[in-house]
Amino acid sequence: MTYDELATTGSGLSLFGVALGQTWLVALAFALTLGGALLVRSTFRRGKDAHEA
């Protein structure tokens, strides 16, 4: 018996009848995080520099 690789858990998600595997979940989480960061960066304190109150 060899233990050369990690066991796959089979975790996934089903949204609106579309099954998403682990790779798609990681890509979706990354896209949501990046989108949120860009949204905050572009809209928070619009028109003000970092040193302005």
TrEMBL record:
<feature type="transmembrane region" description="Helical">
    <location>
        <begin position="12"/>
        <end position="40"/>
    </location>
</feature>
<keyword id="KW-0472">Membrane</keyword>
<protein>
    <recommendedName>
        <fullName>LPXTG cell wall anchor domain-containing protein</fullName>
    </recommendedName>
</protein>
<keyword id="KW-0812">Transmembrane</keyword>
<keyword id="KW-1133">Transmembrane helix</keyword>
